[in-house]
Amino acid sequence: MSVNLKPLGSRVVVEPIEQEEVTAGGIVLPETAKEKPQKGVILSVGPGDRDEDGKRIPMDVKEGDTVLFAKYAGTEIKVEGKKLLILRESDLLAIVETK
Amino acid sequence: MSVNLKPLGSRVVVEPIEQEEVTAGGIVLPETAKEKPQKGVILSVGPGDRDEDGKRIPMDVKEGDTVLFAKYAGTEIKVEGKKLLILRESDLLAIVETK
Amino acid sequence: MSVNLKPLGSRVVVEPIEQEEVTAGGIVLPETAKEKPQKGVILSVGPGDRDEDGKRIPMDVKEGDTVLFAKYAGTEIKVEGKKLLILRESDLLAIVETK
Amino acid sequence: MSVNLKPLGSRVVVEPIEQEEVTAGGIVLPETAKEKPQKGVILSVGPGDRDEDGKRIPMDVKEGDTVLFAKYAGTEIKVEGKKLLILRESDLLAIVETK
Amino acid sequence: MSVNLKPLGSRVVVEPIEQEEVTAGGIVLPETAKEKPQKGVILSVGPGDRDEDGKRIPMDVKEGDTVLFAKYAGTEIKVEGKKLLILRESDLLAIVETK
Amino acid sequence: MSVNLKPLGSRVVVEPIEQEEVTAGGIVLPETAKEKPQKGVILSVGPGDRDEDGKRIPMDVKEGDTVLFAKYAGTEIKVEGKKLLILRESDLLAIVETK
Amino acid sequence: MSVNLKPLGSRVVVEPIEQEEVTAGGIVLPETAKEKPQKGVILSVGPGDRDEDGKRIPMDVKEGDTVLFAKYAGTEIKVEGKKLLILRESDLLAIVETK
């Protein structure tokens, strides 16, 4: 039996990627008080919010995108042992492309 | 005599599903400060909010859907001994499908 | 001489129904921190708010409906010895139908 | 010389009616924490607010109406010894009709 | 050399009229906690705010009007020794007409 | 090498004019708790914000205008030794014309 | 392997330019309590937010622009050792042109 999460509105389900706090050769120290984002992969994407006429606003991200998001955004859920996050698209900061 | 609840606007009536805090073989400890959602089944669905022209915005969930919602969202009501919740659709995070 | 209250905008006049805190055979203890709603009967209904073009948005409740509303919503008024409440329709949670 | 007040926007000028806190035969004690409204008569009515296209939204109350309003709403002014209130129409709760 | 102030948006320039706190024969004591308004004469009127399509919303007051406004509203400026106030039209409560 | 600042949206770049706190013959004492505005000259003007359809809303001030603005509004920047301010047009109170 | 950041909505990726706090010949002391902005170069620009009809609102800045922004705005990210910022266009104050 497998579980499928269909996010509502402009929400996405994201699997966070743990980032090493310690880089090769040294310790990363926070240099500023600014919020640092977290990285993750999008597992599923909602249908989008509705505009004032009830029409769907298309989503700008898709399944499989690697994204950055604010560290404390969203709601955490554990599905089959995996820690996932449900976030609104507006909480996503950028898509990360690796070439 | 049976009681029927017709939620108003974009509200839904949800019967929460109690989730075991303790999983097989161990204790689940909260790993982060993030809010954890709760699961429930939708018993009835309101007609939807009205847009700026007074037309109904269709609802994205239906009776019988299993949904996730923030743990402290909504208003609790006891109907014939059952603890139910009245929530706005915007407080619902995702539909859970089990295959 | 009788008094008639015509609520303005999307307001309704509600006569609250006192609910027994104690059920047959025992004491109901609050199990959660969630807000519990109150029940009442609608005595009169306002004409509805106006949309951005000045047209009335129709009301979803009518005189005689039994409704649930948040316990501390609205403004209390005493008319001919009866304790009534003036509430906005958006403060109403659901219509209760008994069959 | 007499003074005439022309309220602006959706404002009204109201002359409050003092209500006896003490009823015949006893003292009224506040039973709940809910806000109690005050009664008054409308002396003059503004032209109404403008909608997004600059057109006037008609007022729902008129000169001479007896209305209920929240006790601490509005701005007090003393005109020729009389204590009057300038209120927005949205602060009015209901029209009181006595038959 | 004379100074001319052209208020921007829906702002007006008002010269406040000092009101005697003490009336003939006695001292006026504040009877309630409600805010008391101040009187003034409009010296100049802005072009009005723009609606959502960029068109001007006409102003409801004109140069020379005597108006009431909340005591602590606006920004004070001293022009050629005179204490003036720059207020938004929405801070004006009513026009005072004396016949 | 000279620096040119092109403000974004409805922002303007203003060079503040220092005003003497002390007038001829005496000391100006603050008489009220009201905010006092500051004077400045507009050095450059942004293209204007966009309305809901993406069209520019024209600016009401132009390069060279002497304007009043709230004392603590805006962001300060030092360009070639000169202290300048970047303000939104909505923070400007009035244009000062001297004849 | 190189990383490419595609900002979402009206966001931009900015590489901050460190500014010397100490100028030639002396120490710059903060003269006012006003917020001082920071300078940076835009590395990439999002597609723009959507208006109420779902259409893109064009961006006013482009890759390569030198911009000013509030010192504590945005989210910091480290990409290949470089400290970058993800900001909304509305947090940008002005474009700096050097001639």
Automatic annotation (TrEMBL), chains A, B, C, D, E, F, G:
Basic and acidic residues composition bias: residue spans: 48-58
Renumbered residue ranges of the record's region Disordered: 38-58
Keyword hit for Heme: no
Protein location: Cytoplasm
GO cellular component: cytoplasm
Alphabetically ordered keywords of this record: Chaperone, Cytoplasm
One family name in Pfam for this protein: Cpn10
GO-annotated molecular function: ATP binding; metal ion binding; protein folding chaperone; protein-folding chaperone binding; unfolded protein binding
SUPFAM superfamilies cross-referenced by the UniProt entry: GroES-like
Quaternary structure (record): Heptamer of 7 subunits arranged in a ring. Interacts with the chaperonin GroEL.
Role summary: Together with the chaperonin GroEL, plays an essential role in assisting protein folding. The GroEL-GroES system forms a nano-cage that allows encapsulation of the non-native substrate proteins and provides a physical environment optimized to promote and accelerate protein folding. GroES binds to the apical surface of the GroEL ring, thereby capping the opening of the GroEL channel.
Protein family (similarity comment): Belongs to the GroES chaperonin family.
Entries under HAMAP family matching the protein: CH10
Protein name per the record: Co-chaperonin GroES
Source organism of this protein record: Bellilinea caldifistulae
Primary gene name: groES
